[in-house]
Amino acid sequence: MNAATEQQGQQGLGETRVFNPPAAFTANAAVSGMEAYNALVAEAERDYEGFWARLARENVDWQTPFTRTLNEDNAPFYKWFEDGKLNVSYNCLDRNLTNGNADKTAIIFEADDGTVTNVTYKELHAKVCKFANGLKSLGIKKGDRVVIYMSMSVEGVAAMQACARIGATHSVVFGGFSAKSLQERIIDAGAVAVITADEQSRGGKQLPLKAIVDEALAMGGCDTIKNVVVYKRTGGNIAFTEGRDIWLSDLVDNQAAECEPEWVEAEHPLFILYTSGSTGTPKGVQHATGGYLLWAALTMKWSFDIKPSDVYWCTADIGWVTGHTYIAYGPTAVGATQVIFEGVPTFPHAGRFWETVQKHKVTIFYTAPTAIRSLIKASDADEKVHPKSFDLSSLRLLGTVGEPINPEAWMWYYRNVGREACPIVDTFWQTETGGHMITPLPGATPMVPGSCTLPLPGIMAAIVDESGADVPNGQGGILVVKRPWPSMIRTIWNNPDRFKAGYFPEELGGKYYLAGDGAIRNKDTGYFTITGRIDDVLNVSGHRMGTMEIESALVANPLVAEAAVVGKPDDTTGESICAFVVLKQARPTGEDAKRIAAELRTWVGKEIGPIAKPKEIRFGDNLPKTRSGKIMRRLLRVLAKGESITQDVSTLENPAILEQLKETA
Ligand code: WT7
């Protein structure tokens, strides 16, 4: 047992507990102790390019070795390892056929209904090769874009790997996005095919996927799409368009189980993943091949201390970047055994995560703070689903990702899931960063609940003020990364100007990567604590959403004249969505307001997806505005929290409407 040691001095946000990694963990860790960490940090500082070149040679198999590590000529459009050639699928699969992993289990697939399917590296390799040959038979080739709209499945991972194998750039769209969101992404990416399933099975329910693809394609504008490949998951009834749609089994069954990988340049776009920003339209974050793979493999070793005997489980969805780096690519690149889970944490009961850890003897468990918080509530209410009711002794490392974890949830996770014997890696990163950026190293960094602690070696994270000047520890500011790193975003698909202006703003000198988060470093330890987004981006249950995106969806409804969306702190989901709406008709009250609010929620679900539905909708005759007509969002945030307004409202044009906006429909 690892006792908490009280430390003098103020931690990031007043947290004073410090937990050291267990000595036995440190002894066997990839990065063993703070001296080892500091040595890596020093190596990167001494010879930045040499550091990355060494790691890229050690962790990635190159078909053509690179000679140039970093090209900064056209900053911020950085190029890494640009004259090297490689293939990601080769690195993730073929490598494991000759290093003794061929018969090792790559994937333990735990279906929604509890059925288990094991897939070895040899089998996964054959599956991916057949899939890749099938895609080739449709005429899909290097550089083509393929949209993947799939549930959590072996086939979903195989689809990604198959694209990587033939040099096609995939864009996975989360299965919870609506037809309209899917259509917009297909059009922006100019995709030639969609890979989907008939339906998905989640929480005991069958939910449509193919029908949503049909709906998206019927909306028009998707003329680049030639084929829809359909994996039969449930056997549910679906429509088939002759000549366009093809069953996955018909596509792959007669294909050869070997497929020569397409060797691509290190900068070749491996994938595009759409994420929300502060404008109404999502942006296609484009990642490269070589640098991304390096970071996926290396962080599996550094942050997760992955060992050959581990059973690793990341509960994320392949629709998000976590499911890319820490399911589809990272674990396979290092030859790990991983659990892939189709279902939801609460089905058939809220102990499903713990039961699954027990069942597969999971050793490394990586999940989101929202899931932890909701399972705390569930196990408070029902002892049977409490982690203590399961044998979790196989666990040796825990991780969290996606949003800040509050110290109470951290402590509960540490005590009840980790039995005070497992380090917790609170990994701060983003879709744009490709992999972990700031996180404890489990065998090195003393942990402080609620702090993501220190940057990984080679990651030059810092906190600056609005002019780009460093701020001293203990003073909050803007989180930046001062030097390019291999797995960083390369551009925004179709929009290099937005990439440059948004991530390398001139105000900060044009050279620093702007993460979009505020942060503070502890006075004594230099530990980072993320204080939340500094832009109009919300984080609801770890799902990233733009307030403008939701506002645009709301005003697209014929009833709505104006809308403003803000985040409100929420005990379980981190933040919740609160929408202030002005209708074209008179302000509704009572039952009328309830009915219209329900209508608008359904509407947003159709425009974006169920995750974007506002939890609260409040109607006003108007919104609080300055005399020049600017919506005063800071007042809306105060109102959303249910607090009374103490700020100066003298610039407010119409103070009377503040009263109306206190009331939730
Ligand atoms: C945003 C990125 C990281 C992959 C999944 C989400 C927030 C993420 C943490 C953390 C505090 C965190 C940030 C970030 N975030 N991890 N450990 N502590 N905040 O990726 O959808 O691109 O969202 O999630 O606000 O900017 P994403």
From TrEMBL:
The modification N6-acetyllysine is found at residue 630. It comes from the Bacteria. ATP binds at residues 402-404, 426-431, 517, 533, 544. SUPFAM superfamilies: Acetyl-CoA synthetase-like. Residues 549-630 form the AMP-binding enzyme C-terminal domain. GO terms for molecular function: acetate-CoA ligase activity; AMP binding; ATP binding; metal ion binding. This is Acetyl-coenzyme A synthetase. GO terms for biological process: acetyl-CoA biosynthetic process from acetate. It is an enzyme of class 6 (ligase). It holds the Pfam family ACAS_N.
